[in-house]
Amino acid sequence: MELFKTFKPQNSLLQKYVSYYYIDIASQPDYYNEYTCYPHYNSTVSIYKNHSCALFKNHSIIEHDYNAQPIQIFTPLRDDILKVTQKGPVYKIAIVFEPLGINQFTTNLCLTERKVSPDFMLFSVEETGALLRTANENTLIALLDHYLIAKFNKTAHPYITYALKAFHDSEGECLIDDLAEKKIGISRKQFNRLFKQYIGVSPQTYRSIVRFRKLMHYKLYQDKLQNYTALSAEAHYADQSHFIKSCKKLTGLTPSQFFNNGKLIGSEDTFWSFKS
Length: 276
Description:
By secondary structure, this protein is of the alpha+beta class. The protein has two domains: about 5-150, Jelly Rolls (Sandwich), CATH 2.60.120; about 160-250, Arc Repressor Mutant, subunit A. Helix content is about 35%, strand content about 25%. The model has no long low-confidence stretch (mean pLDDT about 90).
């Protein structure tokens, strides 16, 4: 990997909906990179300069093709691992959205499956071309901000927004029945249906991803030496065994394998495992 760099939006409104931007660049003709990204509650729009794309279950293969047009790939919230293979030179720009963030910039409501252009296009052909021609980092950020602000159309989902905040801000176990019936005021069945419609997974699965990501954050950013018993308590797992079981379910790995195999890249929460 030659260059991987993350950037925050400059616009304060966008910062509510966009977690960060990043660029991924490699120029070697024989470049080959394969990595695994893990369950996350964010969604991503990736723009590749001259590439073809093949989407399979839990695997995206991106191959450089000098004659190909730019492509846009939408990757929704993930509750399973996703392997990405990049063959040949890479020039990639990505926008990482907060939960429900992408919904503020597109009228496309089918946002629960990976899609590649022309089935999904957040940016026009002209906008995509301008972004890929931009060499200066600050200019690129300003241009991304400009295009997104022009597309902004606030879409309110009060029940879902309230639930997301509850899952992320809870200081203890967030019970689904209490959240639906006592806090929001709808049946659990209706809540499950709405949540899956807009988020793509059940409330229980989303809660598991949030809890897992909280523990990851504690481990990677706050105290790398902290043991799993203490980490499990901080992230509101019932006990260490509960965390180990959840880690295996979400990543296919034990906690030790997961943290030893993975690598933080950029300055945000991009944590990938690279094939050696």
